[in-house]
Amino acid sequence: SCFIIRPRQIMYPLLLAMAVVKGFAPSHFLEDFITEHKIVINFWNYLDRMSIYRTLLNATSSYIYKTESKIMRNVLWGLPLQHGWQYQTGRLGDTANVNNTKQQSLDPTISPRSWWACMNYYLCAIPFLGAVDAGLFNNFPHEIELTQPEEFPSDFCSGVTDCKISCPEAMAQWKAFFENSRQVAEQSSLNNSEEEGIVSLMWKAHVESIRIALPICSKRLNYLSAPERNFGRNWAKAVEFLAAAYFPTDFESVNNFQMYLPPRRLKEGDKAPNIADFGMEQNRIVFALDWLNKANIFSVGHLLQLWKKAMCSEEGRAAGRRLMQNMVDDSKFGLRNMIAIITELTKNFKCEG
């Protein structure tokens, strides 16, 4: 029988872990969307987007992570877990009332006015269509169509051909991720170097999706409070730092990291690290992302370039991941610490290749 997402799971998306069902072909999960010999997916429904993530998890787990014990190491877990956090914290609904930061009941409707939902479209629809273009569902002979919202319809492509025209580089990067990861997995069981190579391809595609989405989604920033608007921009830039360090996106790593993220949308008057209803680590992450982006802007992008240079080796990336953890754990950790450590990393580790 097919895996069914129940109402409780809308609020607790981590239960999507149950979705990796052994014994089902990836195309099995697309059958729910068939309408008159066409697959029509409502991307403005939280459950439908989660179902697409479920499909991608099953498709990649079937050839990369072949044993049940390795399924939770799938590098795509970061995408649905982030989307679940966005839903739980009220970031996918209509944010016109900037100070109403609570989740509205169990409504799975996604608003086209939501900046977070717009950004996520390019991290759900584009990876999925990239997988389709890579041939992951060749045995499923149905045309695929993604529904467009009534508001801002031109901001969203609706199929493989359409998306290859509007965002060709992002489509190419996701296609390359699926093709190359399958090719590597078919040759042998993954060693650490090959698994890191898959993580690298995923992050490259992820960053490109965000790059193409930022200008398209920018008009929606006006629907957010000033603190939430800044947090969104800071988060988008922080992804480039995470990507350069090959931050792990398996289930456990992302699930643990998300405990540090804001439990609601930020409202007017919120100022980290002194937001009363946020935990200590949640305050720190909001504060750290803010000064990280400000420092990068002040340096005219040189901070990110220095970081990327320091992350050019396996040892450098491991040190970079520890550095990011220190940013959350240590309240006294500051920009000087970061620049000093990055500078030292660029001296100590030789670049690969």
From TrEMBL:
- Xref: Pfam families: Leg1 (PF05612)
Q: Which UniProt keywords apply?
A: Glycoprotein, Secreted, Signal
> Where does this one sit in the cell?
Secreted
Q: Which family does it belong to?
A: Belongs to the LEG1 family.
Q: Mind telling me which GO cellular component terms the entry cites?
A: extracellular space
The protein depicted here goes by the name Chromosome 6 open reading frame 58
Coiled-coil residues are: none
